[in-house]
Fold:
Amino acid sequence: MADDLYSVLGVARNASAGDVAKAYRKLAKKLHPDLNPGDKAAEDKFKQITAAYDILGDVEKRRRFDLGEIDGSGQERPQQRYYREYAGGEDAARYRSTAGYEDLGSFSDLFGDLFGKEAGAARGGGRRFSTRGADAQYRLDVDFLEAVNGAKKRITLPDGGTLDVTIPAGVAEGQVMRLKGKGRPGRDGGGPGDALVEILVSPHPVFAREGDDIVVEVPITIDEAVLGGKIEVPTIGGRVFATVPPGSSTGKTLRLKGRGIKGKGGKQGDQLVKLTVVLPERIDEDLKKLAEEWRDKHGYDPRRKLREQA
Structure:
C-alpha cells in the first residue's frame, strides 16, 4: 500500500469526509472488477483505492494516520496513542474508541455549578438531589449493504466495555439511533442516560441510494443498444436479468419494481438501472465499415434539438 493514501484517492490532505467519499465512489465505479472483467491492472488499482478508503473513510483511522500512529496499510507505528486529553483534565476529554467510533459527549461535571447550593446543603445534612445521567453520543460506520439489509454491530468503548447495536434494514446516512439506558450513569440514584448512535454509511462502488430506490449504472454493448436483449444486473438482493428495449441510448433508465429498500411505511422501493452504451476497446475493420455504410445511407443529427434550444 502506498504511504500517501490521499494521492491514491486523488484528494488533498484537508479534504472533507464527503469529498473523500465522492473521490472513492468515482474511482470505484471506473475500476470495479465487474465492469473490467479480466483487467488485472484495474483490479489491482481497485484494491488500492478500497484499502485507502478503508482508512481515510473512517474518522478515527484517518486521525491516527494523519498523526503517524498507523501507516498506509493500517499497521501500528511505535509509540501510538489511542486517546488524547484536552484542557480541563480527564473529565473534559473528548475521545474516540479503538474501533473507530467517536464519542462526541463531554465528560465534565455538568451539575457542579447547577446544583452547587444543593450539594452544599447535602453535605450539611440537607436534602440530596438525584440527577439523570448524561446521554453518550457515538458515530458508527456501517457498510452500504449493512445499512440496506440490516446488521448487528458492536462498539468497543475506551474503558474496554462494549455496546451492541442492531442496525435496522433501510437505515439512512445521518440517522440517529437512541439506545435507552446505555448512556452515562446517573447521580445520587438517578437513572442512566441514553446512547445516541449516529449512523455513517460507507459508499458502495456499484450501488447508490435515492430515497428508498437503489440506483446502478450498467454498461451495454452497441448491439444490445440497437437490438435490445437480456442483460444481467446486480441488485442488493442478488443478480437478476433485465430486458433492454431496442434502440436504448445512454441515459435510458430501466425500473425494477420492488428491488429497492423497504421504507418506514412498509412500501418497497425500486431499483433504477441507468444504461450506458460502451464501445469496444478496439474498433475493428468490420465495425468501421458497417458504421461508414450506415452513415452514408442513414445519417442523422442527434444535436439538432440542442442547437434549436440554445
Notes: The chain has three domains: 5-66, 90-201, 207-309. The longest strand covers residues 213-220.
